[in-house]
Fold:
Amino acid sequence: MKLLKKIALIIITVFFTGAAAFAQKQIVVCKDGKGDFKTIQDAINSLPAGAKEQRIIFIKKGTYNEKIFIDKDFITLKGENEKNTIISISLARDEWRCENADDYGTATINLKGSDITLENLSFINSYGKDNWKEKNFTCMVDASKSKTIRPDAHQMALRSFATTRLIVKNCIFRAYGGDTVSPWNTEDGMYYFKDCIMEGGVDFYCPRGWAYAEGCTF
Structure:
């Protein structure tokens, strides 16, 4: 009995020590300045490039009007609540591609890293809601040097490249055109979506690779 009690005590001590260390690694983002950072991107940028275990960024409720880039591995973005922890931009893909070589930056959240977890967050690309009419603008890469964008043009809430082992739980993705959720890695991509809402136009859930969605609403 004494041996069993000793083993139990060791297990409990290790558990709580590990839990405390785990809690210390959590970074808090809060718009009012009461966290470690005011913006999500600043929190991501603060992390070292190399990692072998998950780094958690906890995001307090609020609307964060910022575009997110993650090119590092083992990062978790965890919101306080998916209905009131909102990350939002307004951008059509065609407009972005007039000045950029690829899609890295066209979405609300843009991923190149792997082993990424997203939880309890809303990702909104509101271009189609904000622009009720067609928009004409100069586009030097187009043969005609101009471009017309419709309100329901491609507009992404999530776009990934070489990312694999992407886990998304209890998140809302909303756009007003095509390709709302676009994790693209045809050869190695592995994506798991659970209890998410995905809303948009044609191809609003558009994975390339191995994808599984459980309990999601489309």
